[in-house]
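Researcher: Next entry: RNA polymerase sigma factor (Mucilaginibacter ximonensis).
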Amino acid sequence: MAHKEIVFKQIFEANSKKIFHLCYGYTGDDDAANDLLQETFLKVWQNLDKFRNQAMISTWIYRIAVNTCLTYLRSEKRQAKDELTPQIAETKMEEVSEKNEQVAMLYKCIAKLEESERIIITMVLDEVPYPEIADISGISEGNLRVKIHRIKQKLTELYNQYERL
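Model: Predicted structure:
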């Protein structure tokens, strides 16, 4: 196996779970998330030689994934998303067990956030360190903490609305 393939395999194994979560957070759909995951790593593979360790590799991959997801959302224009999401979420709810119900609910709420908020909170859930999130989202760490606080408040409100249903 060539050196590049070995490196790529390690990168994929280390990052694919996180990136799948990220893509799922954007789409709320397993198939779409898988497609976006593959597209992201295809870009990683194509650009691996250009990667010069300026940023941590996971930061670089997140950036690629986020751009891939945003491009997807824009190209889909997502008119169908509003009609789709509740149904997808319902189907998901049936598939998941009791203990996963809250997770499904959380993703349902995340889907209602703005795109920039979605990516930040997904990284928080994936326990990406704050300096890295700041780097990826291009905002200062101070601003990031404020933003995360606001996003969590928003999520809590959305979550409570669901709880009352």
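Model: Note for the record: The longest helix spans residues 3-27.
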